[in-house]
């Protein structure tokens, strides 16, 4: 399995592959993860929850991407033993590994999670184009292509060219409830509590959420915003600088909780009144945190992005807001807070872990039977 980032890095892209790999190990499969050594202090090889992790050192970082010249050598041995190579795109290092897999006659599955749109800087559009070409080549060489939703596949800048041969395979979404930890700052705060579970990044629309707050306060003066996720995200320094004056202005109403323990997330989702996914472009293609919140009975307001709107359309647990529109976002949040609706327990049946794993394994078995 090939992915740019892996544990301890936290993002939807990373958690998707981590959960999948660990579930395969529980079922008795041998799983090797090839990824970047994004932090030089991380071990080059280790076993995490039964998953063998091989980290390749990077030569240079380009925003969140990395150049990994050694990846082809690190991939040689595990690929020779592999039944299947599963890629997690976006990943600029996937192409040479896929070519090697084809030479070794190893079937290739590629899950295309999202498009890449870098923050604007000199040369960023050219880099976006190069990444798109890279991904086109990977998809052309792939035996099976998967996406979290066909809705996203039809509208993706890249994947729309392949959507007719794309399978809809949902990610595993679950919360560990063995040792739930409280979040004191959340527990002591008044309602309504608005949540965002995301790293601070330009494509996440945090500025639109903050600018929606004054309209929300007209109806709910005690409303508070609780942000959970990485504050100093890689490649997002300029965006954090842009947000800082807003954080300072509303410091009594906005709570930056940072990266909290996974044991605290069930408490977080259960004790907010609404979760907001305010993403502004197709680097967000699903938003697993939506389903995590829904599993705790918490409704969601999400922007009208392909793929991102699917959980709400499927379950009815929330409202869809216009993209990059603070006024509409505020209105949708107010609507949800006013309703206080109780949702049916079977609304999330489609997202049950057992069903998702079964679909993934069927995808592999069908590929191997026809390869």
Automatic annotation (TrEMBL):
It comes from the Bacteria. Residues 185-341 form the Glycosyl transferase family domain. Pfam families: Glyco_transf_4 (PF13439), Glycos_transf_1 (PF00534). One of its GO terms (molecular function) is glycosyltransferase activity. Residues 11-112 form the Glycosyltransferase subfamily 4-like N-terminal domain. InterPro entries: Glyco_trans_1, Glyco_trans_4-like_N, Glycosyltransferase_grp1. This is Glycosyltransferase family 4 protein. It comes from Candidatus Dojkabacteria bacterium.
């Amino acid at each position: 399995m090939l992915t740019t980032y892996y544990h301890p890095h936290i993002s939807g892209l990373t958690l998707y592959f981590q959960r999948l790999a660990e579930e395969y190990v529980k079922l008795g499969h041998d799983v090797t993860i090839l990824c970047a050594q994004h932090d030089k202090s991380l071990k080059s090889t280790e076993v995490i929850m039964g998953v063998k992790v091989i980290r390749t050192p990077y030569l240079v970082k380009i925003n969140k991407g990395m150049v990994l010249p050694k990846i082809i050598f690190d991939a040689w041995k595990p690929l020779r033993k592999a039944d299947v190579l599963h890629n997690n795109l976006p990943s600029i290092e996937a192409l040479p590994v896929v070519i090697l897999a084809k030479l070794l006659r190893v079937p290739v599955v590629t899950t295309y999670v999202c498009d890449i749109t870098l923050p604007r800087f000199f040369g960023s559009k050219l880099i976006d184009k190069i990444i798109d070409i890279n991904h086109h080549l990977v998809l052309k060489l792939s035996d099976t292509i998967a996406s979290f939703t066909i809705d996203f596949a039809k509208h993706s800048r890249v994947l729309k060219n392949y959507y007719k041969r794309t399978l809809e395979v949902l990610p595993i979404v679950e919360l560990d409830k063995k040792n739930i930890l409280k979040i004191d700052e959340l527990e002591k705060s008044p309602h309504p509590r608005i949540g965002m579970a995301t790293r601070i990044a330009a494509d996440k629309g945090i500025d639109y959420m903050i600018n929606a707050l004054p309209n929300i306060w007209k109806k709910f003066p005690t409303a508070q915003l609780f942000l959970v996720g990485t504050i100093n995200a890689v490649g997002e320094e300029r965006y954090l600088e842009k947000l800082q004056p807003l954080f300072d202005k509303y410091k009594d109403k906005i709570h930056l909780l940072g990266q909290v323990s996974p044991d605290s997330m069930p408490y977080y989702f259960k004790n907010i009144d609404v979760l907001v996914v305010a993403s502004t472009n197709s680097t967000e293609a699903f938003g697993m945190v939506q389903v995590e919140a829904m599993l705790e009975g918490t409704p969601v307001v999400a922007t009208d992005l392909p793929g991102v709107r699917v959980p709400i359309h499927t379950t009815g647990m929330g409202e869809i807001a216009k993209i990059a529109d603070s006024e509409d976002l505020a209105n949708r949040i107010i609507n949800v807070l006013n309703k206080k609706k109780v949702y049916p327990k079977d609304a999330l049946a489609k997202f049950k872990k057992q069903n998702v794993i079964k679909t993934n394994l069927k995808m592999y078995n069908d590929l191997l039977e026809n390869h």
